[in-house]
């Protein structure tokens, strides 16, 4: 199956929504797998996922997560001593970054015929997957994700990064749906999140460059029903707000770039020791 006009719509706006991308069973299987992960968090793991325009989580556990399944808490879920303030099933921000290789349910989705069809419709010659995440965005504790470009974190040259964001719940303005600036992918990558070139520094990860202040009136909300796929260009500016509802907003997301035309930067914070598995090669 080839999606007609997918590439032209994607090139125009920097994002595309494909409704009913997954079946009801496929959607449920992913969400069940994500909820099951909350039951297996190692007791010694207390890393909080912090992401802002100036500060980002940067401990060894995070830096070495490219080839593992690692667990990251919401800031509001733990007290200063690392004790849970909410039920364990609601405490995680995300799990990453190798679900697509190490967990059979997420691997089956990532390397499915449906994903292959999208990649071919976008004209990718050798799509590979550098990372994947299960994002929880639970009621009350699900925090804001600030304005950003995904290529800030996963820089390729030339830029061929595409985010696959699959809604496992209905995503609404109340529970923290995505917000996009249409056409903003036609600018440069404003800043980079890289491994610190100063090996003597105490900070292992640093931002390089300056992100502009984005005009809030340019954003448009992107509510979608569960089972929908949102394709996100690496340079399109997007964000999501805090989940202020009583309902979860779970999502499975992974990124793809075209290794046939692009080089993955050795400066990127995320570095695998085993290489990237292609969706297909042409």
UniProtKB/TrEMBL annotation:
Keywords assigned by UniProt, alphabetized: Iron, Metal-binding
Pfam family, one: PhyH
Similarity comment: Belongs to the PhyH family. PHYHD1 subfamily.
Chloroplast keyword on record: no
Protein name: Fe2OG dioxygenase domain-containing protein
Cofactor: Fe cation
Organism: Aphis glycines (Soybean aphid)
InterPro entries attached to this UniProt entry: Phytyl_CoA_dOase-like (IPR008775)
Recorded GO MF terms: metal ion binding
Keyword Metal-binding: yes
